């Protein structure tokens, strides 16, 4: 099987590509290597992938429709996994156009290519941020999510709606995955664990938002990749019980499905920092700040559907995952 992984030089895309290559897949990795965070880190991830015989790199941006169409003409893809996106909630407050170009225009281009190439299965990344103003925990894919509070979240909800239209109109099988706070080795420098580790080791203060009352469903990268791999193998069917008078947001009369993919465990940010301090052997200097615009105070993934359908079972707790990240960080940066 030949798989297109978009965002292959990104955090999740890199790990998924390595997993697929190890399992014998042919992988074409698309990435535009944008400068949202360290391009050097992305290139180092990419270099490891390029050591593999069955990996090909495509330096293409999703918003470049002609280049994307050419890529689909050159390769006979069986499955497409879309992990390319402009990430970050806070960055979307000041750089909205980046999200329109990549997450909306780019995703529309990808859907068109998948449609015309008769792709067998499109798996695409959504986000826990789509839950927005929802307060019922744990967050369920059966809940309504019509009140996002950042443009990033709105773009991810839009991706879900766009994919559903293509699934309904053209029979394109689509599965959306709402990721919950992914962390681990080779992680993103703009994420809390990376930022906290860097600041603590340098003796600089860390910013603790919502005055320390933040809770997150931290999900280790290996669990995420396992879940994506399992979902790739399960092409969604139609839901014959779907009722337009009581519509279920997670399924459809079209071949379309949404899942949460998280650790199914909400962790207090203060405890997360405590585990980090214990493993670094160094105390953090904390600066407490109010909740930032676009942020939600709590996330907690209901993963019952994913467990039922593909036997997904997250295994890595933060007490294991944080030390693994620290080991990588110290090695990579020669600390």
Describe the model.
The protein has 335 residues and is of the alpha/beta class. It has 10 helices and 13 strands. The strands form 4 sheets. A 7-stranded parallel β-sheet has the order 3-2-1-4-5-6-11, with helices on both faces. The longest helix is centred in the N-terminal third of the chain and has 21 residues, at 96-116. The protein is globular. It starts with a strand and ends with a helix.
Strand content: 15-25%
Arrangement of strands in the largest sheet: 3-2-1-4-5-6-11
- What's the story with the biggest beta sheet? 7 strands, parallel
The N- and C-terminal alpha carbons lie at a distance of: 40 Å
Amount of helix: 25-40%
Total number of beta strands: 13
Total count of helical runs of at least 4 residues? 10
Report the principal-axis shape: globular
As residue ranges, the low-confidence spans are none
* Radius of gyration computed on alpha carbons: 19 Å
Structural class: alpha/beta
Entry keywords:
335 residues, alpha/beta, seven-stranded parallel β-sheet, two-stranded parallel sheet, 10 helices, 13 strands
């Amino acid at each position: 099987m030949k798989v297109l992984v978009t965002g292959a030089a990104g955090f999740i895309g890199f790990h998924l590509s390595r997993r697929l290559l190890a399992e014998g897949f042919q992988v074409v990795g698309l990435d535009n290597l944008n400068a949202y965070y360290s391009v050097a880190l992305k290139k180092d991830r990419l270099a490891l992938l390029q050591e593999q015989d069955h990996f090909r790199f495509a330096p293409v941006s999703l918003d470049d429709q002609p280049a994307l169409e050419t890529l689909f003409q050159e390769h006979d893809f069986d499955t497409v996994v879309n992990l390319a996106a402009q990430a970050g909630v806070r960055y979307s407050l000041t750089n909205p156009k980046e999200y329109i170009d990549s997450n909306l225009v780019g995703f529309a281009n990808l859907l068109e290519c998948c449609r015309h190439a008769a792709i067998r299965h499109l798996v695409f990344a959504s986000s826990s941020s789509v839950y927005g103003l929802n307060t019922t925990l744990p967050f369920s894919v059966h809940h309504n999510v019509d009140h996002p509070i950042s443009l990033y979240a709105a773009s991810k909800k839009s991706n879900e709606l766009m994919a559903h239209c293509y699934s309904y109109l053209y029979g394109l099988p689509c599965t959306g995955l709402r990721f919950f706070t992914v962390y681990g080795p080779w992680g993103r420098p703009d994420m809390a664990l990376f930022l906290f580790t860097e600041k603590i080791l340098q003796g600089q203060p860390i910013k603790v938002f919502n005055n320390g009352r933040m809770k997150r469903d931290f999900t280790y990268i290996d669990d995420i990749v396992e879940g994506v791999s399992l979902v790739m193998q399960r092409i969604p069917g139609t839901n014959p019980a779907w009722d337009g008078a009581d519509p279920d947001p997670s399924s459809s009369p079209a071949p379309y499905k949404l899942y949460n993919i998280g650790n199914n465990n909400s962790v207090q940010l203060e405890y997360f920092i405590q585990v980090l301090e214990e493993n670094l052997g160094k105390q953090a200097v904390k600066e407490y700040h109010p909740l930032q615009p676009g942020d939600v105070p709590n996330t907690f993934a209901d993963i019952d559907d994913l467990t039922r359908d593909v036997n997904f079972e997250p295994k890595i707790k933060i007490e294991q995952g944080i030390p693994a990240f620290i080991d990588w960080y110290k090695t990579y940066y020669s600390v």
